[in-house]
Fold each of these.
Amino acid sequence: MKIAFTASERPEAQEGRARLAKRYGEVPVSEAEVIVALGGDGFMLECFHDHMASGLPVYGMNRGSVGFLMNDYSEVGLVERIQAAEKATIHPLRMTATDVEGNTHVALAINEVSLLRQTRQAAKLRISIDGKLRLGELACDGALVSTPAGSTAYNLSAHGPIIPLDAKVLALTPISAFRPRRWRGALLAHTAKVTFEVLEAAKRPVSAVADNIEVRDVMDVQIAEDRDVSLHMLFDEGRSLEERVMAEQFSV
């Protein structure tokens, strides 16, 4: 099997990469059948962003602090584990953000697109779904739209719902909502197009973040699932992403 190895900057990840490459050999991404990424969940996302155009499946191994998307690290039987792995295919969100100077910024997000206040003052957002106004004013620290794959990350920390991978829905979740105080967000069809308009942008500046790509001082942000882009994660047999999401819902 032709494997391309990549690792985060953590010493344990770099050490693991060197040991695995020596044992199994390695090829450049352009010649590989699979990418093995060593690190944590954050590095897994970086790997997908860096190699999205390759279309290669990524098999993650945990050598970081958070490993929800990663398999256990072991130097034994790597090829056999990859061959028996279960594949999860996800589609990222496409963020199109316009800043106060009229510039347009486009970025993809595997986990979520979040809008966040930049100052001590609460953000004020207007939310439309598929061109129809749904919430005239949300006063908050921010809001996010999450994929199922990202629903156990920032979305869960903001008290959003955990979404099974095959549910074909997105989570729209407020972050520290002040008004309307009791609004807890919504579940949207995966085909939905979400538009955020920033109210009082000069007084209450807002940034938009697609995974780790930030655009500051935005005026409006449009978010939709990009079905033209498919990302493939590999998980050890019996430990699929669907199983992990299910288990997370029963954790105490």
Amino acid sequence: MPKKASIDTLRDRIDKIDRQLTDLLNRRARLAMEIGEHKARSGRKVYAPEREKLVFQRLHQANRGPLTNDHLQAIFREVISSCLSLEKPLRVAFLGPAGTYSQEAAMVQFGSGADLVPAGSIDAIFDEVERGRADYGVVPVENSTEGVVAQTLDRFIPSPLGIKAEVLLRVDHCLLTVPGEPRELRRIVSHPQSLAQCRDWLSRSHPGVPLEEVASNAEAARLAAADPTTAAIAGRQAAERYKLEVMAENIQDLPNNVTRFLVVSADGPSPRTGDDKTSVLFAVPHAAGALFKVLEAFAVERINLSTIESRPLRGRAWEYVFFLDLVGHVDEKRMGRALAALERRTLFTKVLGSYPAWQWPSAAGGRAGRGRAVDGNKAALRLAGGRR
């Protein structure tokens, strides 16, 4: 039986690999800087989510472990982020303050090489990007248990911005307090959606304790840090930032708690990857069968709908704006035909963008998993017919 190498020998081998990795990473960075110069001369944007998606897919396919694809993607997210910062530092607005899930989503998408700037509201995020004070904005749009974020959908209606990418973030809520001996809680504070997502757990574990809504989970953590009789519902990132203790973890009522975020920009649609989404909004006349006729255009072209939502059209009583997420890219011929039919049958149509569909990393050596889409055509046609 061959003799195993000593710890010192193994460490020497690791040191050698580290030197090789450092050399390779710097070679990669220099190539990225050259690409940045090409982009600057041609007027192309530095941030390319479609390219990043293809990079991650190739890494997943080549990975043989023991690192999982999650590990590998986290490492290369920072490599890509650092290289992007050498091309051009990106300024990204998120729903603040620091320590929110929105900041975590921005970190997942842009890494620590970007300049992440907290904004006080969803309107403020759009405003930062519209005025050119931020390159991109990250806004929440829907939660798997509590539904859409109406503010975000409403803000798209007047805004010239579109969607560049999406981020799906698994949300694990924790109950946080100041460290030390447990004290009698006088209130539990959090964002309204977080309180709603933990409603059953709170009624079982802390019956009678008043619940208080605040602007964000990070604000809740800040309040808990200042008052030992206040507990906050927030994530571990907020606990670390505000030096709070985790009293209980994973307290959300449903284990599959996912929030979807959108990256908004003035860039225009991302190029095709072969696994894309297109988001549109439109308004229909207040007439029987109007919505059915619109949605029929997508059924005819066999385009699946993954999301359909409606919002009241301001200033027009009993008329609504509809938001659709479609599976496919605006450059596909069938999508072009469907959108042309949509424009003929609506009061107005606005394409918000085509962008890479989010993919969860799988285990090492496996294929990356897509977010699960509903059979949108059937659901949409039922909605158009008045059955929900």
